[in-house]
Write a structure and sequence with these properties.
- By secondary structure, the chain is of the alpha/beta class.
- The chain has 3 domains: 6-67, no CATH class; 77-92 and 127-480 and 815-822, Rossmann fold (3-Layer(aba) Sandwich), CATH 3.40.50; 556-791, Rossmann fold (3-Layer(aba) Sandwich), CATH 3.40.50.
- Helix content is 47%, strand content 15%.
- The protein contains 33 helices and 22 strands.
- The strands form 5 sheets. The chain has a 9-stranded mixed sheet. A 6-stranded parallel sheet has the order 19-18-17-20-21-22, with helices on both faces.
- A hairpin with a 2-residue loop joins strand 3 (166-170) and strand 4 (173-177).
- Helix 2 packs across helix 3 (47-76) and helix 22 (572-588) packs parallel to helix 23 (610-627).
- The longest helix is centred in the N-terminal third of the chain and has 30 residues, at 47-76.
- The two termini are 45 Å apart.
- Bound molecules: (1S)-1,5-anhydro-1-(4-bromo-2,5-dihydroxyphenyl)-D-glucitol (Z57).
- (1S)-1,5-anhydro-1-(4-bromo-2,5-dihydroxyphenyl)-D-glucitol binds next to helix 7.
- The site of (1S)-1,5-anhydro-1-(4-bromo-2,5-dihydroxyphenyl)-D-glucitol has 19 residues, from helix 7.
- Belongs to the glycogen phosphorylase family.
- One of its GO terms (cellular component) is cytoplasm.
- Its EC number is 2.4.1.1.
- Its cofactor is pyridoxal 5'-phosphate.
């Protein structure tokens, strides 16, 4: 019988009960969805249609396991973890879900029968870019690990209609294009069109006294928007456990009012509806330099208010008293972005549940935990008091009351430090007043953690030192991690296979098992196999670069890769200064190059960040000059890959030799790209910053190239008065490079084009100490090049990097959070 007829397919569905769908029906399920869910002819479905149908077939399997997981959590009456984040960067789901469900082979077979390859079909997926960079990606690695560990957890965020912009490079400059990711249709999610919560903004607070003589606060007026739940599923690795990431989308409440469209002003009514739905329209593309816009504050409260309603609804089902709330719930704040959850819980408890303030506060401070991800002063979130009062008048009052009581306690604890109160106050007082969100988060949480050992120490010793003195027991470290399922198994299947052949599969859920590779580090045979896999990965990336940029690169060259958001503290500028240095050496002496190198850059700049965009432009200009200079030939190539995102990272990580992690010491809280590269066998060149320091401790200093000032040296130098010009004057190679840039060598049509970059270094203080670290960086780069000449030595270092990355699994991080902060166990 022809199995593609609708009758045959429908018959097959009926005979397979949903709870026991055998994997060999995957092909039938795909064809079933092509016809019944997508409304297409299933005789010759196209690639995009097959992708969508496969996604739907997998969603069927995910939802079954999710329901079962939810029942298990409910039955055990577990304490629940709520992970609140304004950003998630899950990356493409297809391969990840296939691996977790153990359906990769079945999918390949089914697709082959349909005339496709998994690579082709996976290429149809458009990743949800609902985050900017490290912070959002970390949240997604953590969900993967929470699912692997069977934690009773939920991710909560916003379903932006437009994610992080799509970056194009046009004439060497960044151009932003809207990321209309929903256009492709929502094959992975369930839109709960009947599951909504009202969220209220603006209005004014009315104070009144009730019959029992209690002072009450009621919000009057204002406007209401509905939050619609959209669920996406995160499967645990082969454990039948599935978590959900619930993303809220804004829907106008007005369309639920019968009279709304009947007012005579039909078009005006539609306009109002669209304005309401704007709240979840677009992700703010600013990483570590928040834009203090009203819409952004509304987004934060939108997430918080809808999520708190969900949490309270689930808690109420238990039928226990409010004082049990912290035993049953922990709410984790990913950065301060969702910190208004603290006054929101206070409002619910005090204004609506009529609990006394002290009791409510006792519940609050036992419920919240906060992760800080940055010490950059410009990244610490503050909101103008006026704006806060306008959007969230009752919450501002509550923050003032929290502050009054907090300062009262501080005054009693430290009576002899009058300046202290102003420094720790939740309100910054000056010409204008600001609400300090980090102070709110610290005062309202039982746990405050940094994201690497180094960063957590900086928090305690400098930026939050005074809070550390007030609440020493709250501060702790949880070093970041990455999921080995995506960042090795999925993105580097050939290396994963080589590893598994030698040490089995346990490493997938216990990354410390990679230690078992260490004995192979000296084996010539294994080294050869290792380097062959790496070379094939590098060939594939070379093909991609050729297709995208039209540049031919040597797969045997040293791939020196710097991919991450563009920010001055990450010092892509230092890297390109070194590239120009090598160029000059080759120009002077064609035999000067030690080893052929390919420099690969990628990353987005915030659209309003002038200097970051300018540095992107400089890199592209330098690349053009070098790549077209016949004297250089194969010795040096510079590539800028546009639109760095999770999908592109998955191509790059397995093909990298040298990983650039060169932030100014003290400024990168952790970094997670550093871990992804090393897990795939790249060697790091980096500063004493963030998690680099812990990576050094694990891999050993022969296997990692560290350079540059230490963070206390950066501070000392700054205090003593740092003069970047002395480096310019005393280092002739550096001087030549800077003179070329400011003299228009890379911008012959417009010699002044890059002058302000050099100005920022020489005449505006070089805030990120690029010049101070230049020479030590150049030396270390030379060490790296020499090391690369010794290929067996490089192979050994590469393998030892992989073998010693076990600690940096996000399973380890999540295990620590679960045990030390949340007090939860696997279901
Ligand atoms: C962001 O991506 C990070 C910190 C922030 O405060 C914001 Br806003 C965005 C990054 C840090 O820069 C990285 O060092 C860190 O690895 C990452 O967050 C995850 O913790």
């Amino acid at each position: 019988m022809d199995s593609t007829t609708p009758e045959a397919l429908a018959g097959m569905r009926e005979t397979a009960s949903p709870a026991t769908l055998p994997a060999d029906t995957l092909k039938a399920d795909i064809l079933w969805h092509v016809l019944y869910s997508l409304g297409r002819d299933n005789e010759r479905p196209d690639r995009q249609t097959v992708f969508r149908a496969l996604a739907l077939a997998l969603r069927d399997r995910l939802v079954e396991k999710w329901i079962a997981s939810q029942r298990a959590i409910y039955a055990k009456s577990s304490k629940r973890v709520y992970y609140l984040s304004l950003e998630f960067l899950p990356g493409p789901f297809l391969r990840q879900n296939l691996i977790a469900l153990g359906l990769e082979k079945e999918a390949r077979d089914a697709l082959t029968e349909l005339g496709f390859t998994l690579d082709d079909v996976a290429g149809e997926e458009w990743e949800p870019g609902l985050g900017n960079g490290g912070l959002g990606r970390l949240a997604s690695c953590y969900l993967d690990s929470m699912a692997a560990l069977r934690l009773p957890a939920y991710g909560y965020g916003i379903r932006y209609a437009f994610g992080i912009f799509h970056q194009l490079i046009r004439d060497g400059q960044q151009v932003e294009r809207a990321d209309n990711w929903l256009r492709g249709g929502q094959h992975w999610e369930f839109e709960r069109t009947h599951y909504m919560h009202p969220v209220r903004f603006y209005g004014s607070v009315r104070e009144w006294v009730d019959e029992q003589g209690r002072l009450r606060h009621t919000l009057e007026g204002g406007s209401t928007v509905m939050a619609m739940a959209c669920d996406m599923f995160i499967p645990g690795y082969r454990n039948d456990y599935v978590l959900n990431m619930r993303l809220w989308a804004a829907k106008s409440s007005r369309e639920f009012e019968f009279s709304f469209f009947n007012t005579g002003d039909y078009i005006g009514a539609v306009e109002k509806k669209i304005r309401d739905e704007n709240i979840s329209m677009v992700l703010y593309p600013n990483d570590e330099a928040p834009e203090g816009k009203e819409l952004r504050l509304k987004q934060q409260f939108f997430l918080v208010s809808a999520t708190m309603q969900d949490i309270v609804r689930r808690f109420r089902k238990k039928g226990v008293a409010w004082d049990q709330f912290p035993r049953k719930n922990v709410i984790h704040l990913n950065e301060t972005h969702p910190a208004v959850a603290i006054p929101e819980l206070m409002r619910l408890l005090v204004d609506e549940e009529l609990l006394p303030w002290e009791e409510a506060w006792y519940i609050c401070v036992r419920t919240f935990a906060y992760t800080n991800h940055t010490v950059l002063p410009e990244a610490l979130e503050v909101w103008p008091e006026e704006l806060f009062r306008k959007v969230l008048p009752r919450h501002l009052q509550i923050i003032y009351e929290i502050n009054r009581r907090f300062l009262h306690d501080v005054r009693r604890q430290f009576p002899h430090d009058p300046g202290l109160l102003a420094r720790v106050s939740l309100i910054h007082e000056g010409e204008q007043r600001f609400v300090r969100m980090s102070h709110l988060a610290i005062v309202g949480s039982f746990s405050v953690n940094g994201v690497s050992a180094h960063h957590s120490n900086i928090i305690k010793e400098s930026i939050f030192n005074e809070f550390y003195k007030i609440f020493p027991e709250r501060f702790n470290n949880k070093t970041n991690g990455i999921t080995p399922r995506r960042w090795l198994r999925q993105c580097n299947p050939t290396l994963a296979w080589l590893i598994t052949e030698h040490i089995g599969t346990e490493w997938l859920t216990d990354l410390e098992q990679l230690k078992k590779l260490e004995p192979y580090a000296e084996s010539a045979g294994f080294q050869k196999a290792w380097m062959e896999v790496r070379l094939r990965n590098k060939q594939k990336l070379a093909e991609y670069i050729h297709a995208k940029n039209g540049i031919t690169i040597l797969p045997e060259s040293l791939y020196d890769v710097h991919v991450k958001r563009f920010h001055e503290y990450k010092r892509q500028l230092l890297n390109i200064l070194h590239v120009i240095t090598l160029y000059n050496r080759i120009r002077r002496d064609p035999d000067a190059g030690i080893v052929p190198r390919t420099f690969i850059f990628g990353g987005k700049a915030a659209p309003g960040y002038y200097m970051a965009k300018h540095i992107i432009q400089l890199i592209n200009a330098v690349g053009y000059t070098i790549n077209t200079d016949p004297r250089v030939g194969d010795m040096l190539k510079v590539v800028f890959l546009q639109n760095y995102c999770v999908t592109l990272a998955e191509r790059i990580m397995p093909a990298t030799d040298l990983s650039e992690q060169i932030s100014t010491a003290g400024m990168e809280a952790s970094g997670t790209g550093n871990m992804k590269f090393a897990l795939n066998g790249a060697i790091t060149i980096g500063t004493h910053d963030g998690a680099n320091i812990e990576m050094l401790e694990h891999v050993g200093d022969e296997n990692l190239f560290l350079f540059g000032l230490l963070s206390h040296e950066v501070e000392d130098l700054r205090r003593q008065g740092y003069n970047p010009r002395t480096f310019y004057e005393t280092d002739s190679e550096l001087r030549e490079v800077l003179d070329m840039i400011s003299g228009g060598y890379f911008s012959p049509g417009d010699p002044h084009m890059f002058r302000d970059i050099v100005e920022s270094l020489l005449n505006h203080g070089d805030r990120y100490m690029v010049l101070a670290d230049f020479r030590s960086y150049a030396y270390r780069q030379q060490d790296a090049a020499r090391a690369y000449l010794d290929q067996p030595g490089w192979a050994r270092r590469s393998m030892l990097n992989t073998a010693r990355m076990g600690f940096f699994s996000s399973d380890r991080s999540m295990g620590e959070y679960a045990r030390d902060i949340w007090g939860v166990e696997g279901v």
